[in-house]
Amino acid sequence: MTFSSIPFFVFFTIVLVVMTIIKIPVFAHYLGLKEPHLRRVQHSLLLIASYIFYGWWDWRFCLLMLLLTIVTYSAAIHLENQKPHPLYIIMGVSVPLLILGIFKYANFFITSFMAMWRIERVGSLPIILPVGISFYTFQSLSYTIDVYRKKVVAEKDFLKLALYIAFFPQLVAGPIVRASDFLPQLEEHRNVSLHNFKIGIQIGIFGLFKKVVIADWLSVFVDDVFSTPHAFHAISILLAVIAYSIQIYFDFSGYSDMAIGCAKCLGYDFVRNFNMPYISRNISEFWRRWHISLSSWLKEYVYIPMGGNRKGVVRTYINNMLTMLLGGLWHGADWTFVAWGGVHGIALCIHKLYRNLFIKINKCLLPYSPPRNGLRGFVF
Questions:
Q1: Does residue 99 sit in the same domain as residue 207?
Q2: Which residues are catalytic?
């Protein structure tokens, strides 16, 4: 059930209608619902809808997500103690990573190991990749780590934490939602309203247009060229590469817009995930605009904990490369994704080196000299 499918349109319409009906005073009075009981019923209905949405692909995925939710809830509750046992932070971090590693990367690592040692390949493990596992495991990880760092308070209500992890608009294709952004919204009186619906439907339709009209149309040309490149002229291959870069942007950002729009229709706000990355003046700015929720997640939970730029120049470049390699691997279990992350890591290191060199040279120039004004935008 993808956002651009008829089943999702029917499903989302039913959810909207139900969420609208229960907030009508007459029905709420008839059902005997008052705040905060009404809010809890809303959360329960959204959680049920989220599990129905996720179970549409395979009901077994719901059991996996429920297991992750139980572990995350238990670990975070115990981390609230003054002196939490190290076992709980280990459990809260290792279980999501273990789930992600088994279901997404097990076959990749096994195949790579066998190829490295030239072992005859017997076959791959019969593992089904759960939809959206990269997103909800990262959300549970960030929540547990934030509780451990005392940045957020552990959620005592299991229903709210389960809804945070399973909320269906962001479940399949993001954005990666932070607990500090979403959990406070569950404490507020948020309903389906005409104002939110008008805003959300505009964002959602724009995302649907980007996905169906632009990305899917470009994919026809791109797939034909990439499937048989030897049958096309070099110019056609170059155009296909350019078209593919446009396709993946409109495909991914389209899905993000539809997720943001769906959440807004239901009364909830998600952060913007793309901000016109292809008009960036340099690679660093590109990563501040492309898949913002992931790049900020990697920065806060990978790059900074490794030392960031606080350990010297060489360590900064190493941390940068490792972060981008992990970012590439997050996108897909294949060495091409790792290479893609490595290329971006090298580009970021070159830009940082160039920027530092530019700063040193600029100190020797007048504050308003032409080189400073002309090049500054492409450096910072």
A1: no
A2: 331
pLDDT band at 147 (very low <50, low <70, confident <90, very high): very high
Cβ atoms < 10 Å from Cβ of 213 = 12
Better pLDDT: 159 or 373: 159
Res 119 pLDDT > 90 = no
Q: Single out the residue of 9, 16, 37 nearest to residue 264, CA to CA.
A: 16
Q: Which of 121, 156, 186 is the last residue in one of the domains?
A: 186
Q: What pLDDT shows up at residue 30?
A: 66
Q: Specify the number of domains making up the chain.
A: 3
Report how far apart, in Å, the C-alpha atoms of 42 and of each of 49, 162, 222, 344 are: 11, 13, 44, 43
Rounded to the nearest 10°, the torsion over CA 333, 339, 340, 346 is 140
Kindly report the number of other CB atoms within 10 A of residue 112's CB atom. 15
pLDDT of residue 99: 94
Measure the CA–CA gap between 335 and 267, rounded to whole angstroms.
40
pLDDT of residue 172: 86
328: amino acid identity, one letter: G
Tell me if 33 sits within 8 A of 22, measured CB to CB: yes
Is residue 16 located within the same domain as residue 120? Answer: yes
Question: If you search the block for the tokens 């429920």, which residue do you land on?
Answer: 66
**Mind listing the pLDDT tens digit for each residue in 290-323?**
999 999 999 999 999 999 888 888 899 999 999 9
User: Averaged over 132-142, what is the pLDDT?
Assistant: 94
Q: Which residue has the tokens 């100190």?
A: 363
